[in-house]
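$ run holo --ligand "alpha-D-galactopyranose" --emit tokens
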Amino acid sequence: MALAQTPPMGWNSWNVGLNSNDYPDFSNLTEKSILNQARAMVDSGLLAAGYEYFVLDDGYQNARRDYRGRLQGHALRFRAGIPALIEEVKSLGLKFGIYSVPGSLTCAQQYNDYVADGLGSLNKEQVDAEAFAEWGVDFLKYDWCRAHLNDGLFAKETFAKMANELGKTGKEIVYSISEYGLFKPHEWAPEFTQMWRTTDDLFANWDSILRTIDLQVDLYPYSKPGSWNDPDMLQIGNHGLTAAENRSHFYVWAILNAPLMVGTDLIKMTDEVRDLLTNRNVIEIDQDWGGQQGRRVWQGAEAEIWAKPMSDGSLAAVLLNRGDRTFIFSVNADTLGREFASAIDVPTGSDLAISGSAALEVAAHDSMLIRVR
Ligand code: GLA
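-- output --
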């Protein structure tokens, strides 16, 4: 079984449920709203573009487990129950992902008032893995949530425990872990997970995007088919980000071979956002494995170039303008790390008609994604 040979792509409910203060609000997290998102994922062309995992994040749970000790959907918001929801979502052609945590408290439980006993999978790993497998779950997001402080757990052995239980079910379940880069996950997570969060939560603002990008610089040696660095879900389309910032965010995630988990409201999504997220040329860069994840190859005061080899021998590069003014990039053998005879603008596929060296202008907070040969 070779899972996640390309970076997983999908949609996740979490970012949609954050209000403008980045605070979770579950009142709209209902069976009905979730199914509407799933339908929109198909209707908008996201599934056709490769986004296949539909992931229900924290906040779906009932305050109590059922009589068999299994997790269940919130009694009022998920009346038909999680198994029925999964069946419905999967009937649309999507794969289903679910959320749990290794400790006793989920992250949202720690600052929300829907506190109950036993929502986390602590000491219930087998019960939960078996239930997920029986329900047809294809993806598990397993989220640390301070389990070292709340429950005195150690990250590696705790995450390995669930990997073991998932393995015992015999089902192909992508295992996505999240401990925000606290315990050097890149050193051990590749052994038994398909993706691990490298960093803390990404929010829909330019500072958060830049801070997250900076923390990826040294991680390129750890990614490979089947095990991916995860700089967190996409905030593209969410409050606070401009069109230029959405582009930069997407192009850098593509150059990092990052899992692409859309985190916007698919019903309210603009055509501009949909066109960006479904741009096949950009997605191709993300999904292609040329032997190494993208890395920073040139750095100026407020601009940088990130590049990665493509499997056809070309080189993909993002010219990222972090600053508040237009920047003119010198693109040449020194800044790219290799010579080039031709270049295309990836999103449009158009020939840039440059060779050897060129000056390319990029607006504030914007980026260009190019592919040179
Ligand atoms: C953490 C994770 C988020 C989300 C929430 C859920 O903050 O990093 O991605 O899953 O928990 O509570």
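-- notes --
DSSP finds ten helices and 16 strands in the chain.
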